[in-house]
Amino acid sequence: MTTDSTTAVEAGPGARVRAVRHRYARRGDRATVQDRAYTVYVAAILALVYVAPVAYLVRTSQTLVPLDSSRAATPVACLVAAAVVWGAQLTGRYWGPLVLKPFLLHVFISTDLCPTHYLGPIARRRLVYAGLGTLLTVCTATFLVTDLFDHPGTALLPQGVGVAVGIGAFASVAWLWGQIRTVRENLLLAAAVAAAAAAVALLGRSALDGSGLWLAAGVPAVSATVLGRSAFRSLRTVDLPRLARQSARAAEAQTFAWTGTLHHALDLYRPEPRGLTSVLVRPDGRLRGHLAQGAVRALRAPGRAVAAGAFLLTGGALLTLGVAEPDARAATLSWTAGSVAVYWGSGWVGESWRGLRDELTLAPLFGERWGGMPARTLAWPAVAVPVAVGLAGGATALTQWPLQSGRPVEALLLAAGSVVLVLAARFLREMKTNLPIELLLPVITPLGDLSGLRVFVWQFDGLVVVLIGILAITQMPSASGAALVALGLTAWCLWAGLRRTGWARLALFSRLGRV
Predict the structure, then answer these.
(1) Distance CA 238, CA 119 (A)
(2) In whole angstroms, what is the distance from residue 81 CA to residue 93 CA?
(3) CB neighbours of 172 closer than 8 A, spacing ≥ 6?
(4) No. of H helices and E strands in the chain?
(5) Which of 124, 126, 156 is closest to 143 using CA atoms?
(6) Which positions ≥6 away from 294 have C-beta within 8 Å?
(7) Which residues of the chain have pLDDT under 50?
(8) Contact 419, 469 (CB under 8 A)
(9) How many CB atoms lie within 10 A of CB 94?
(10) Are 150 and 117 contacting, i.e. CB atoms less than 8 angstroms apart?
(11) 3-class SS at 278?
(12) What are phi and psi of 146, to 5 degrees?
């Protein structure tokens, strides 16, 4: 036996894994230094143009969430910890730390190595990065939104940093837990997190005196240690075929994202509709009405339907509170948050948004009357969203009636204008097809090439329209002026959305097909 063969036989699993990763890292199609430098450059420009001014305005204005004592800060810390952990679990279900490049994962699966040997190192490294990123994000948000860092001489600052460390550790482990554990085990963890957060919040406001934040920092840290040991022990039994499917989908989503079609990447992670197929058809064989079809299609994806209901109801309540709030700054904040929530929820109501886009962009084979297409595909969103927002707004208005009893008509007009604007912005977003080539042309300015900013704005154009429109509406001196602004932006969104799909040309073909 030669020396090379003896070395290959005696090499341990760790050395074999490192050899494979070393060879794969030196492949010919890997990212170059120029590619990484351009990504860093675009990120720096975005931070300078968008993030820095917003952060400066938020920091120099009145504190949004004042935290003057540990007793007041403990419930806020518990709420943030629960939200971050739940978000990490949900992210892990779709894109967890074990997702690798499909070819690299295929090579590892084809060997006799235990999954712990090639998944453990990458999981540990990514969990460290995720924990540090969560720590920095929580600290930055605390610095911008609260006044915790304005009390350097007290114990609030070290306690707040300890809470951020605990949240970062627990969130990173929950990210791994969400990927390798079943749905039932994730629901149990989410329920346990809710119960623990409620218990710590109650103790911090009642029994404990000044040590509530330390308890809010210690519970996530201990939970991360216990949960992490259990999660890493489960690596040897990970579902490799499911992991291969996740890696393939992630690679395709990355390709879409890097080529400027982020909406296609997000579409890959939409759950497939299941069940209730026969409900779409009446007993006599005819299709049900437009509203019934939209409702059934929404119920075929129950997770999205529940999320849509939660966002729409929350958005309706926040919109009503924004209209009834006497303080202008608090009203603008509540109004903006409510509009964003309605925007997100309206996209999860049903599949008819994307159905309209597909029908407008594909050739009309049977010469269907063009006017029936929007009625069939947009009837359900146009009815479900205002009804859900109206129910939540009406229930909230009952508690705020003394504040808005003097201007009920104006309040109704402002809320209706906001909802119509949000629906038009969602229509604009869903009519998006491929990235226009002209957006890639260089835009030379003293700051450099800003074409990347145009692509970024195009990716999130619906959300940008909502934010700009709501800020413009809140600055109008009268409700009629705000309604006119909302109608103007709505008309522009509808025109731009139809223009993206070449609707005039397709409508002409449809008429020719009927001749």
Answers:
(1) 10
(2) 19
(3) 88, 127, 128, 130, 131, 134, 224
(4) 23, 2
(5) 156
(6) 349, 350, 352, 379, 380, 381, 384
(7) 1-9, 367, 369-370, 403-406, 504-515
(8) no
(9) 16
(10) no
(11) helix
(12) -115, 175
Instruction: Give the per-residue pLDDT at 401.
Output: 56
Nearest alpha-carbon partner for 90 in 359, 366, 306: 306
Q: Is the dihedral of CA 434, 436, 440, 443 positive or negative?
A: negative
The contacts of residue 184 (CB under 8 Å, 6+ apart) are none
What pLDDT does residue 509 have? 43
Contact between residue 272 and residue 278 where contact means Cβ atoms under 8 Å apart: no
DSSP string, 89-119: HHHHHHS-TT---HHHHHHHHTSS--HHHHH
Q: Which two tokens mark 458?
A: 């195009």
Strand (E) or helix (H) holding 449 = strand 448-449
Report d(CA 501, CA 354) in Å as an integer: 12
How many Å apart are CA 336 and CA 346, to the nearest integer? 15
Contacts of 151 (CB under 8 A, 6+ apart): 68, 157
The DSSP symbol for 424 reads H
3-state secondary structure 167-223: HHHHHHHHHHHHHHCCHHHHHHHHHHHHHHHHHHHHHHHCCCCCCHHHHHHHHHHHH
- 3-state secondary structure at position 259: coil
Residue from 31, 71, 63, 432 nearest 254 by CA: 31
pLDDT of residue 8: 46
Would you state the structure tokens that stand for residue 496, as one six-digit string? 């731009």
Place of tokens 């341990």: 12
DSSP class of 48: I
Q: What is the dihedral of CA 490, 496, 502, 506, to 10 degrees?
A: 10
Fill in the DSSP letter of residue 152: T
Give the bridge partners for 444, in sequence order. 449
C-alpha 121/C-alpha 96 separation (Å) is 14
Which amino acid, one-letter code, is at 98?
L
pTM: 0.76
104 to each of 11, 35, 288, how far by Cα in Å? Answer: 20, 22, 48
Q: Show the tokens assigned to 274.
A: 């299941």
Q: By the 8 A CB rule, do 498 and 371 touch?
A: no
Distance separating alpha carbons of residues 447 and 306, to the nearest angstrom = 45
Q: How many residues does the chain have?
A: 515
The answer for 364, left when phi > 0, alpha when psi is -120 to 50, beta otherwise, is beta
User: Taking the CB of residue 174, how many other CB atoms lie within 10 A of it?
Assistant: 31
pLDDT in tens, 453-493: 788 788 888 888 888 888 888 777 777 787 888 888 888 88
Q: Quick check: helix, strand or coil at residue 445?
A: strand
